[in-house]
Amino acid sequence: MARIPRLTTTLAYDRYMAGERLVSSVDREWRHLVLRSYREPAAQDLLEAPGLRDLTLMTLASGAEHLERSLGGRWESADMRVNDLWCVPSMPVSWRWRAIGDEPLSTLHVHIERGLIDNVAQQMGLDASPELSLGDAMRFHDPLIAAMLAALHRAARDPADSRLYVDTLVHALAAHLLQHYSRGNGARHAQSARPERLMPRRILRVIDYIRANLAEDLTIAELASQAGLSSFHFARVFRHETGETPHQFVTRLRLEEAARLLRATDRTVLQIALEVGFESASHFSVQFRRGYGVTPLAYRLRG
Questions:
Q1: Which residue ranges traverse the bilayer (predicted)?
Q2: 93 and 7 in contact (C-beta within 8 Å)?
């Protein structure tokens, strides 16, 4: 197999994809971005791809999958569902995945020119060539970004949508990314007058605490104390940073750990439910079906 380059262009990236291309904006008179969507195979043992110069966001347009990524030789994984987001880093990366459930998998890829990011950063009074804290994120949640990507996807499928509409969307998307995810020395956010934000190290501290105590009755007050904030401030800022309420976040982590245990162990559904913090097998089954579309037993049988 030929060695992949460290970096490639947005137009050339298509050749490294495993799926069947469904939609492409390459032939549209769009500026500053390229959008593509793909119907993905239900399982992929290994896909190796170079990094990208342009900022690239991906999301599931349909289906759900167990996705694994190797970045710098370290594998990590997450169960991905529609509107979960991830970013293509600026270095070679290896992927593998398998579908969860029967719904076909399709992905949406949006590539934003680095030049646009820099131009919008200048207009916002940020440092030149700002770094965004997304490249090392296996998955992140931001309902507004997910909605913008969905709107761009609809526009790519509708020849009647104007270039001005798309330009407005991509500028708004760039501004949102810079306002909420830029980092680096001297970066000055336009929203500097807002209350103190929950910094990434505090998020990691709280997430580590949640993961270590999934079986416990986690309260807002307890989580807020881990972040060193009042309960009210913590709940508001946590949602701002993660795109989820603390309750939604804890529930998702519990379901992800339960899915892992269903695949990797022969423990009963009740044992797993109690181990990850649900009060009963019935409550767990309702939440699991809501998140994964199947019962825990059906999920286990599908392997």
A1: none
A2: no
* Ordered domains of the chain (ranges, CATH): 7-183 (2.60.120.810), 200-301 (1.10.10.60)
pLDDT class for 183, splitting at 50, 70, 90?
low
Q: How far apart are CA 266 and CA 272, in angstroms?
A: 10
Q: What is residue 28's three-state secondary structure?
A: coil
Q: Is 132 exposed, middle or buried (0-12, 13-18, 19+ CB in 10 A)?
A: middle
Beta strand spans in 158-198 (E) = 182-183
CB 113 within 8 A of CB 32: yes
| pLDDT at residue number 65 | 95
Kindly report the number of other CB atoms within 10 A of residue 158's CB atom: 10
Give the tens place of pLDDT for each residue, 81-134: 998 999 888 888 999 999 998 999 999 999 999 888 888 888 877 766 677 766
- Terminal Cα distance for the chain, rounded: 30
What's the pTM value of the predicted model, to 2 decimals?
A: 0.62
Q: Per this entry, what is the length of the chain? A: 303
Q: What share of the chain is helix, strand, coil (3-state, %, to 5)?
A: 40, 25, 35
Separation CA 51–CA 258 (nearest Å): 32
Tens digit of each residue's pLDDT (9 = 90 or more) over 16-61: 999 999 999 998 888 899 999 999 999 999 999 998 888 999 999 9
CA 170, CA 116: separation in Å to the nearest integer? Answer: 9
Cα 185 to chain centroid distance, Å, stands at 25
Distances (CA, A) of 167 to 30, 45, 116, 153, 204: 7, 37, 11, 13, 35
The three-point CA angle 228-234-236 to 5° equals 160
